[in-house]
Amino acid sequence: MCGIMGFSRGFSGDLSRESQEIRESRESSVDIVLNGLKNLEYRGYDSSGIAYYEEKEKKIKCIKKSGKLVNLSTEFSCAKPVKSNMAIGHIRWATHGKPTDDNAHPHLDCTGNIAIVHNGIIENYSVLKNRLIKKGHKFITPTDSEVIAHLIEDYINEGKSFYEAVRLSSLEFSGAFAVLVLNAPEKSIAAVKYGPPLVMVNKGGDIYFASDVSPLIEYSDEVIYLKNSEIAYFHDGKLELTNFKGKKIGKTVTKIDWDASRSVKTGFSHFMQKEIFEQPSCLLDAFSSRIISVNGSAHSFSDFKILLENVKLTKKDIINASRIVITACGSSYYAGLAIKYMTETICGIPVIVEYGSEFRYENFPISKDDIFIGISQSGETADTNSALELAKTGHAGILSITNVPGSQITTMSNKGVIYTHAGPEIGVASTKAFTTQLLCGLLLALHIREIKGYIPASEGINGLNIFKDMVELPKKVEQILFMNEAVKEIAKKYYKNANFLYLGRGILYPIALEGALKLKEISYIHAEGYPAGEMKHGPIALVDENMPVLFLLSNNTLAPKTISNIEEIKARGGRIIAVADYEPEIEGLSDLIKIPETSEVLSPILYTIPLQLLAYHIAALKGTDIDQPRNLAKSVTVE
Ligand code: AGP
Questions:
Q1: Which pLDDT score, from 0 to 100, does residue 26 have?
Q2: 271-280 pLDDT, tens per residue?
Q3: Which residues have any ligand 1 atom within 6 Å of their CB?
């Protein structure tokens, strides 16, 4: 949902007087920003632009292009090499105004001395815009963001310093904003955050700003996260942090353990494909240091201990909680639905799962005894975080499961954070982040059970198998990944179909939803996920020989019911693809993907893998833009 990147060299003085030799040796700020934007392209990709301070002409120059980032890079590579020590750039996911060259960021003020890039929405932009137009400001775009440059200019016209103009403007905006402001006369940059993320690296006197850590890790693993209502002001090589009231604040440096090499495709055709294949090691990373064998024996739950380093739930919290409320969006919501099954089975506590976007307008009665769990890969999803804000207002306990250290959700989680440790996920369609969410949700359920000391009345689950199966999980995921070519062959049969149904029961129903979402997102084929038992209440009307129906079938008590549903589809001419953990005795299956068996609570992870591969191959055969599907963005920081 828009990515921003900025850079400035940290020395003062007249850079136009640098020796030719030094100047030649410096990497242009434009290249640094352009390179950074490549890492942020997953956040939006309908247009992009860079504003830079041209040292020789002593003014801001700005190049903006609609379409993918490659259009902007081409524009720069065709132009004369740029000499610049200061630049800001933007990659856009349009909200206000079409994705045209003009509407792309950066936006300038009337004088061309101020350039801004913005991630978020300025909700009161039209009121501010009308006021500024009356004062003579000339707007050239219908965007909400342009008003930022003009308001700052207006305060400067009134005699305020640049920093004060930025600060006073920030107090006037409502909505969500992460903004970088380049000021030509002063040769300074200001960064403002309220909502969407902004991270900085201050190294060797230089400053780098970005929407997330991925473009920064090549410069340093020590980053500074700007918090809400904070301003970073970089001038004459000095970095100053204040809040919106102008009060100075200290810098907290966070160490990031992401490996820069994880942000490159390394031989895979797409990031999504690479991320699917990374799952065995990501899953291992998610649990390996978190399960401890207590006494060397492995006979029951009590032989193991779960270590969730940041979780601060007490026995009292758990005894008092009459329910757990999970809030999330998209794939993370589906992970939440599966985690509901796990938690209810393992802990005997009822779980409610709510879409963040619905919850925030629902008048949901929140109790201080509720335990809320926010699930978000990015940790930035506006709907999820707003739901958690409400939970906070109701004094509930808040935990989060996220992949991004320091992201906004982590700052709201008074009962702790469980990091999925999946590493940067670049493909817009979530894969490894989703399966590690499932695993972390399971670890949390086991941890809650441990604190509660709960023994299910009818030992419906075998504790030993869960731990044993968890250890074997990465190997089993690998076995499924070895079926890649076979799944590709299946994809060849179906990629021309216009519709798909995905059906599952119990803990596999959320995986049917996730499988359908994956197919929709990257192949643009219409796909519906349904509980298999619901099919007869409506969707069965859609079934004919042109409707492939994918069933998730497990060899458990629900199998006979699911097989009856398969027969009902067959009787109506539908083609069946079954993903099953055994060889079911069903005649006339069009395709069977047989996966390894595991404990029921771990099964959603294994069933997800073939669905990811199927969606990937269907999309590849259709030739869609797999890593950056149309109309989507990785982090949805607007409502
Ligand atoms: C997943 O493939 C999607 N791109 C999308 O549904 C995503 O899961 C959703 O936007 C929530 O994102 P989050 O996990 O970062 O909060």
A1: 64
A2: 999 999 999 9
A3: 329-332, 376-378, 381, 384, 428-430, 521, 635-636
